[in-house]
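PROTEIN DESIGN WORKSHEET
SECTION A - STRUCTURE
LENGTH: 404
TOKENS:
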């Protein structure tokens, strides 16, 4: 399905060979320039995450591998399933994908699943998040085994220089690191009650996430020490910052700033840099909509996500319009120098409306990709700007972020 959009065209691509899979969380651009996708099944019992590939050159979708059976966890074994690769699908310059699985899918023939109800039930509980690499050339998984036991991995970052992964677990909200060469897993401890959905890296390999109140936490690349910085994500003056954990973070095209949004009530966009004498956090205001728009009842439905820079140097993102009907999700873009916002298009196609947009990335030609969550079957949106030309690459490997 395709339709016109501002300065281009938007396409919706459904993953129709996976009719029960309902969300796409992991999405990244591989070293080969292809788009890699984690199609997840978190609402129906007995489903395993699939890895798919989209070839921009051929505009072709490929179904590559079902992950659970390759990890020794077939989705019909009675356990809570390896149903997701959340924000844990990370490309490396060696062509591999660095991954960790996540939980929420019920066991087969179960209507739902909660981790605490089955924590000590060896037959039903989630065994833990597997850490692995996927080789798209050989279509093969190299399984490093379970990292966090009985928990999923919600987000992941890859320090390629040190061959080191950073992750955050769910539901207990622990930070962990995993050294790939020594296959050593280290739990760095719990950082709060609210689970951040982004952990990101600076140019030196230090990792960053947030505590429950939006304060930036820095994890030292060499010592793994966690330090709370005196900067925090913005929030409205009638709140006190609770639940303002990181939700999505992307680097600027010059890698000097990180642009992000929170998994809270505020729907703000902010930018942060650690590359000053003192770290700086700047509030860029409400992403979209009236200044007095209160999002209390819309925490899950109206969040900002799908942040990605286009080659036009504008920041693209998605948000559902929750202050007036129809409540469609829209693709927007922002000039980060002037703050000007523009609506690119609605993401509705007839009766089809995405419940949420999970992730975003670009191909080397400059097309933008947005992963959908909340519909059966799941799929993704492709925004094709008019200036894109397959004979000219506007992005390269140096522009790809190493986190989910």
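SECTION B - SEQUENCE
RESIDUE ASSIGNMENT:
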């Amino acid at each position: 399905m395709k339709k016109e959009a501002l300065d281009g065209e938007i396409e919706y691509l459904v993953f129709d060979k996976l009719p029960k899979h309902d969300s796409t969380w992991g999405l990244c651009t591989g070293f080969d320039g292809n788009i890699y996708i984690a199609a997840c099944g978190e609402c129906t019992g007995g489903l395993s995450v699939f890895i798919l590939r989209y070839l921009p050159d051929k505009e072709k979708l490929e179904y590559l591998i079902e992950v659970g059976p390759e990890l020794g966890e077939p989705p019909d074994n009675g356990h809570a399933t390896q149903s997701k690769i959340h924000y844990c699908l990370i490309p490396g310059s060696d062509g591999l994908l660095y991954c960790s699985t996540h939980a929420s899918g019920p066991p087969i023939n179960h209507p739902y699943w909660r981790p605490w109800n089955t924590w000590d039930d060896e037959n039903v509980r989630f065994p833990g998040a597997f850490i692995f690499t996927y080789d798209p050339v050989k279509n093969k998984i190299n399984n490093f085994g379970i990292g966090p036991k009985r928990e999923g991995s919600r987000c992941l970052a890859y320090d390629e220089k040190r061959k080191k992964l950073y992750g955050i677990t769910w539901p207990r909200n622990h930070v962990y690191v995993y050294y790939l060469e020594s296959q050593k897993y280290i739990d760095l401890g719990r950082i709060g009650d609210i689970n951040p959905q982004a952990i990101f890296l600076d140019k030196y390999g230090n990792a960053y996430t947030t505590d429950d109140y939006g304060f930036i936490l820095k994890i030292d690349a060499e010592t793994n020490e966690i330090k709370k910085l005196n900067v925090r994500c913005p929030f409205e003056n009638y709140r006190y910052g609770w639940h303002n954990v990181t939700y999505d973070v992307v680097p600027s095209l010059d890698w000097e700033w990180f642009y992000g949004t929170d998994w809270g009530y505020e729907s703000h966009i902010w930018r942060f840099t650690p590359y000053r004498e003192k770290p700086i956090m700047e509030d860029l205001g409400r992403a979209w909509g009236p200044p007095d728009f209160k999002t209390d009842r819309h925490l899950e439905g109206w969040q900002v996500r799908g942040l990605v820079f286009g080659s036009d140097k504008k920041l693209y993102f998605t948000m559902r319009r929750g202050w007036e009907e129809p409540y469609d999700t829209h693709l927007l873009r922002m000039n980060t120098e002037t703050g000007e916002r523009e609506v690119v298009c609605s993401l509705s196609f007839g009766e089809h409306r995405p419940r949420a947009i999970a992730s975003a990335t670009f191909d080397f030609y400059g097309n933008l990709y947005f992963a959908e969550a909340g519909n059966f079957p799941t799929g993704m949106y492709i925004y094709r700007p008019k200036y894109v030309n397959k004979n000219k690459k506007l992005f390269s490997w140096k522009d790809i972020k190493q986190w989910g």
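SECTION C - NOTES
The helical segments are 67-70.
The chain has one domain: 2-396.
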